[in-house]
Amino acid sequence: MRMIGWELRKIFEWKRVLAALVFCTLFFMLFLTFPLNTFHRNRPMIDNVRVTQSMIEKYGTALDDGEFADFVTFHEEKSRQFDEYLATREDVSALGFSTLAEIRNSDNESPEVFALLDTLYADFDEPWEIQAREHIIEFYEARRARGEAAVGDLSFWGLMLDANQAQRENTLGSLEAYPLFEGYLMANYSEALVQAAAMIAFSIVIIVSPLYLTERHQHMLPIQYASKLGRKLYAKKAIAVALAGAIIALVELSAVFAIYAIKNGTLVFSPVEINSFLSPFQTWFDFTFGQYMLVTALMALILGTGMALLSKAISRIAPIYLTLLAILVPILAGLIHGIYTYLLRSVWSFQFPQWFPFVIYGGIALVVGGIILWQGKHEKKCDILV
Amino acid sequence: MIKYELRKIYKSPVVWGLMVVFTLFNGLLIAQNFTQRQSMSQLTDFTANENVQINEESLSSLYQMKVEGLAAANERAGTEFESAGEFFAQRRDYPNEVRAAFAEVLTLEIYYDVARNADEIMAGNDMVAFTEQQIAMIGATGELADTLRAQGLVAQARIAEILGSGTHRDFFFDGVMHATHSHLFGTVLRAAAFESMIFMVLVTAFLIGYEFDAKTVSVVYSTKTGRKLQGKKLVSALLAMLGLTTLLIAIILGIYFTVYNHSGLWGASMTSIFLSEFDAFYATFWDWTFLQYLLAVVGTLFVLQTVFVLLAFGLSAITRNSFLVPILFALLFGGLLLTGTFISAGSNWLLYTMMTPAHLLLRFKNLFMVTQLFPFYEVSTLLIWLGFGTVSSAVAYKKFLKEDLA
Question: Residue A145, exposed/middle/buried by CB under 10 A (0-12, 13-18, 19+)?
């Protein structure tokens, strides 16, 4: 145990930690401020989220047919109120309109109409909210229809479904009540998560990868490898590196999640299931948003630990920094590409089979574990090269 | 001595391994436009025999090709469509060969329509309105908005100039269909520039850090002559840059132009009406042909790499740690991109903070275009940074000559 502590102390050398900190600050400003801070100021996302949030307060985390009917009356009442107000406005009646729907669906493409719409959307929240509620009604009805339709001819957000996916859509559609989860939240969360994971991968490389090279540099390896105890350091180092990777990932994830919780204000949605009629992201499993956040954060942790162990293995064989970095660059590029595309963003999506996330992450664990074990086996008998 | 320094690089398997990885990756990037190859070859078949200019003669011969192609396609399908557009507008299933035949005619029709209306399309580009959009997008006010508006007027004047000289009346791959400009310059060559940058930072850090990594410091640097090796290392890094970047660019352009035939298009003007893409207007500030533009961009790339080598040399000579240098370099790169966020959108300084190699590299497909920040942006940026790089390298070198290397 004490050796692992010493190894950890060597890994977290202050110069590299400082470099990683500066790197993380820059990375955060370049890629994370947008999903974390700007999202909750942008329209129409924020209006949809606000409407859904008020629905959750009123109806609970899921919406059934009775509540839906109530919601439709509520929507009609609200639209009527706004139309009554519009009828009193002179600039609206001057163009021959009396309701918002008339202006929006008008064939008249003159600049005055566009200007009127612009002012209405700029001055009031109501048009945005009406639009959001219309969206909810439309998609609620669409899911009811998918629940009632024959499984054979289902499509979903313009996507063709295979038999299993159609079956899943059909099951979700025949539920008594539908979860109220806004799709923009998922897009925003995934964006923040993948950027955080990329940041973790980079900082792990900065902190962990020079591990053996510094020792080689100080001519420590010949001393260590001359004794049996020294050769066992490989296993202890592996544990220390895995711990270091997990620590770095945990620290950065908690920082990002803390800012997400404070700035984004979307944690109200954590008890809501994510297979919502308002979201294009559907999964095979009935996660709530909170559970989904835990699972994906865990996956980011696994990726971080895996990357740390992989850089340790490369560090062991690389004679100089050039070799180390040159091998790490393509690996890191591949990992980042995977993170940005499907490793975190969509691995649970039902566009992949049910077993996909388990196979992918099991595969990563097997490959990394295999490399470490295989290298460790050679450690006991390898020659001491100065 | 330079010979031995270079030997360290070309004897290193890692450099060649990285070159192979980069080339494979570049191959993937080049293949991104592969589905366009067939319809792109239709234009090169045409321009290989015809003049690249749009004039009465070439227009009528294109019209002839179009009519003949349509007749042949109609005969094959047993239909009587008046244009390929009409064929694709109606939704009925035809065999794939018929669809392919009509698709070829459709390509010709698009080229013919754009070529015929070249003047109107070029005149329809409203750079003043485009500038206003940009001003609204970044929320520019005051001094900065005025500067951008003035720049919009310059761009508008350039369009008038192009219309006057008629250089827009040239055939080139249709940007809306094939997006070749952003593919070649924005994706492929930009990737090459990034890869070359990675190469140069690693190699420079390796050369400078070599004596420290190999524990030969006390032997090599203990004499006055020995200390001067540092300067030779810089020269070697620059020579290695020339060699590696040339090789990288040669491979990448070799593959690109083998896959996508450009015969007959080398002399096409870079202000051609076909260059503009779906949401981007492209025309160069100067009357350049495609070949001249390509050479100018490659030249810029080499100067950019020189700047990177100089900066990496400065960093290496100060830190003397070949692991820290790439990290510091990445921090410098990101920091340069971020300086603008601290400047208010009302000050011209926002433009000046964009005069960095990092911005130049990210906006690679806009090089020498009228949509660039201002004329001579590239030249002034590179000159400033060449100066800065030279001065910082010289200072680092001078300091190193007398430094205590305990």
Answer: exposed
Q: By C-alpha distance, which of A302, A275, A288 is closest to A366?
A: A302
On chain B, the residues whose CB falls within 8 A of the CB of A27 are 334
Indicate yes or no: CB of B334 within 8 angstroms of CB of A322: no
Tell me the H-state helices in B320-376: 324-338, 349-352, 357-362
Taking the C-alpha atoms of residue A161 and residue A278, their distance in angstroms, rounded to an integer, is 18
- Smallest CA–CA distance, residue B216 to chain A, in Å, is 12
* Residue from A202, A219, A325 to probe the interface with B (highest B Cβ count within 10 Å): A325
Per-chain mean pLDDT for chain B:
90
**pLDDT tier, B406 (very low <50, low <70, confident <90, very high otherwise):** low
Q: Chain B partners of A19 at a C-beta cutoff of 8 Å?
A: 324, 327-328, 331
Domain extents for chain B? 2-35+128-402
Locate A128 and state its tokens.
């945005």
Residues of B in contact with A321 (CB under 8 A): 205-206, 209, 213, 322-323
Q: What does residue B9 show for φ and ψ, rounded to 5 degrees?
A: -80, -55
The answer to whether A322 contacts B326, with C-beta atoms less than 8 Å apart, is: no
Q: Residue A216: closest CA among chain B residues belongs to which residue?
A: B213
Q: What angle do CA B297, B303, B307 make, to 5 degrees?
A: 140
Task: From chain A, pick out residues whose CB is under 8 angstroms from the CB of B18.
Answer: 326, 329-330
The total of other beta-carbon atoms located within 10 Å of residue B61's CB is 14
ipTM, 2 dp: 0.80
Q: How far is B291 from chain A (nearest CA, A)?
A: 32
Q: How many CA atoms lie within 13 A of A38 on its CB side?
A: 9
Q: What is the pLDDT of residues A182-209, one digit of tens each?
A: 888 898 999 999 999 999 999 999 999 9
pLDDT in tens, B341-400: 888 888 888 889 999 999 999 999 999 998 888 888 999 999 999 999 999 999 999 999
| Residue A267 touches partner B, C-beta closer than 8 Å | no
> Quick one: pLDDT band at residue B402, thresholds 50, 70, 90?
confident
| B206/A320 Cβ within 8 A | yes
**Over chain A, what is the mean pLDDT?**
88
Q: Render pLDDT for B5-19 as a digit per residue (tens, 0 to 9).
A: 999 989 889 899 999
Which residue in chain B has the smallest CA separation from A334?
B25
Instruction: Give yes or no for residue A143 having a pLDDT over 90.
Output: no
CB contact under 8 A, B327 and A206: yes
User: Count of A–B CB contacts within 8 Å?
Assistant: 58
